[in-house]
Amino acid sequence: MSKKNHFILHEDYMIPRSTLITCWSEDAGSVGECTSQYLKDNLKSYHMGNIEPNGYYTMDGVEVDRDIARFPENTFTYYPDAELVVFEGTPPDHQWFSFVQTIMDVAQKHCNASQIYTLGGMISIAAHTAPRELLTVASSPEMLHKLKQYDPITREIDYYQTPPGHRPTINAYLVWAAQQRNIEAACLWLPVPFYLAPDKDPQALRRILDFLTLRHNFNLDFSDIDNDINTQIDKIAELRSLDTDADDAIRALENNETVSGEDSQNLISIIQALLKDTS
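Above: the chain's sequence. Below: its structure in token form.
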């Protein structure tokens, strides 16, 4: 084990080439976290190392258990059969530049990464019955063209630049940092219905895994995710048959109609209570 700046390398696997995927612990529908966990559960993997948390987080965001501070973990996992490295972490409170540059250093020096994807969920006003779409922000038009080869049915793929005077998100910053090092990069966003955002969205998870399957030739059985999707849909359908307010709100979303803030909040509470009670 060796330490290089903020990165602790547990094992150097001499990776010939790879794609690096970053998954954040804080996103709508837990898309990034669920994607990382699903890959760990179903593909052969090796722990490469981690970024030390020192200096990146405030104590307000640190969990304390029995007087022991538990800082967020930021880990790199190598999947040799898929030529993937997955970084799973928590966005830092401080020193974005140092944090992102550490990820870039690992991508270049230890992963030989030719592409970087940063993925996650984003809150959507669509109903859960709408198909999940994959929205992409890429580092160049050329990268967009390559992505379309693996996901031709994506509704919206567009080149993006942060507007002047606006601070970029950490995902946009990652794409910019990769661009500075001549590494192709893209943000992959999965819109998640707002009333599912605090929990999990198996439809969004299946959508991103479909893309990764095409891109990296996975050979996985997604029947367990399909079961989760059907179970969630059935639970909400049963709720709609019993709760006219919830049904009216979801029906309005399905018809692209406006739902009031109060009705939206009520829908979130009802759906989250349902999913929590039946989980």
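The mean pLDDT is 88.
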